[in-house]
Amino acid sequence: MASPIIRIDNIVKRFGPLTVLDGLSIDVMPGEKLALIGPSGSGKTTILRILMTLETISGGHIEVDGEQLYHMKKGADLVPADERHLHRMRKKIGMVFQHFNLFPHKCVLDNVTLAPMLTQGVTRADAEKRAMELLDMVGMADKAKSVPAQLSGGQKQRVAIARALALSPKIMLFDEVTSALDPELVEEVLSVMKRLAAETDMTMLLVTHEMGFAHDFADRVLFFDRGKIVEEGKPEEIFRNPRQERTQIFLRKIIAAGHRV
Amino acid sequence: MIDWSGYLSLILEGALVTLQLTVMGSALALVMAFLAGLGRLSRFFLVRALATTYIEFFRGTSIFVQLFWVYFVLPFAGFTLTPLQAGVLALGLNVGAYAAEVVRGAVKAVGREQTEACTALNLSRYQRMRHVILPQALPLMLPTFCNNAIELLKGTAVVSLISLTDLTFQAQVVRAQTGNTLIPFTTILILYFAMAWVISVSMRWLERRMTRNLDGVRI
Questions:
Q1: Would you say residue B218 lies in a domain?
Q2: B102 falls within a domain
Q3: Which domain, by its residues, includes B27?
Q4: Would the CB atoms of A53 and B119 count as touching at under 8 Å?
Q5: How many domains in chain B?
Q6: Which positions ≥6 away from A99 have C-beta within 8 Å?
Q7: Which InterPro entries does the record cross-reference, listed alphabetically (chain B) (predicted)?
Q8: Predicted pLDDT of residue A199
Q9: A149: nearest CB among B114, B117, B217
Q10: What is the pLDDT of residues A44-55, one digit of tens each?
Q11: B chain contacts of residue A91, beta-carbon cutoff 8 Å
Q12: Which residues pair with A72 in a beta bridge?
């Protein structure tokens, strides 16, 4: 049995007086595709943001790929991680955002090549070759010279996926990547992600409101409410036969809102 | 009948001095603006404190007094400056303090999500500023920089008080010698306006060039 690539151990996250995550623990196995679902404000996005080091934690430990994320060893003690440690740990993780967060002043190709050239010392020629392969994979190769303002939301998100992949992270985080898209553009992004899940052994964590997609995509589904895991299991179990009342209510509401399961 | 051609060349010499002051003063102001503006955003307290002190001091005291201080008081401390050096120093430091806040504001106006994208892509603080934040902040600074540069141009008139032969000084010389006020002061009015207009037009051109990619849309 392999050991988990992500080990979230009893973490606490407070925003001022508000406790968002209260003693949460999750293990994620290498290559696992994990879907985090639940009502807004339940803390699922916060987990991704914590893993990407966009938030700090108020308590607990996180281990990524065998190393502490927010702590480092100093002699025998575990002390808070410094910027260098975080920099090293971030190499293992990539993230795709709800609002794409592309660099508006750079063309599609430069959006993808910037980080590999700056952080991995890749030459421009190599970075561009790799970027074109990735853009081809997400179906955006013909837009390499366009700037983000000329793209649709779905196209922007596909570029953002290619940009995150360019750094070859072991773990990819997808934070409601289709929530900001017009309905007719959702499918093109989801199909890219399905292919990605099928073709790579990357570990993926997905926060989504697309229940149908979570069902097809994930090996395991976690249902969150108020910072706690209410129920977890295989997609079939959670979606067809939820045991907890809160899960049932949530899924009913989602279906009533017109999402397919 | 007055022979105006000699006086006109006197005024044009003054225009040259004003131009020199404006260009060199703006260059110094630009450097100070970025030093102090980015300094105020530093994570080091001492750097922030230093930048804030500079900005508050030079915004909070009159350019008049600053110029006199640089020109008449500094020599007591062993620094003797030529009138041109004193003028450039006072104008540059004064306008730089205002422009520093422009730099800070523009950097802060670039959305937090851009910073987060940089973190996710593992860029360092420097790389983030250099490759992502500043290129987007620069076009936001330009309209106000244009204001600052024109203010500086008009502010150059105060140097006539430390006997620097700029436009205003020369106009006064001409008035004293000819007894005519209308012609010298109308001439320099037009010259000031023309210079300000050149600044305006070139800044607009620069702004257009820099925002071409953004297409007026922010993501």
A1: no
A2: yes
A3: 4-211
A4: yes
A5: 1
A6: A180, B113, B219
A7: AA_ABC_transptr_permease_3TM, ArtM/GltK/GlnP/TcyL/YhdX-like, Ectoine_EhuC, MetI-like, MetI-like_sf
A8: 87
A9: B217
A10: 999 999 999 999
A11: 122
A12: A79
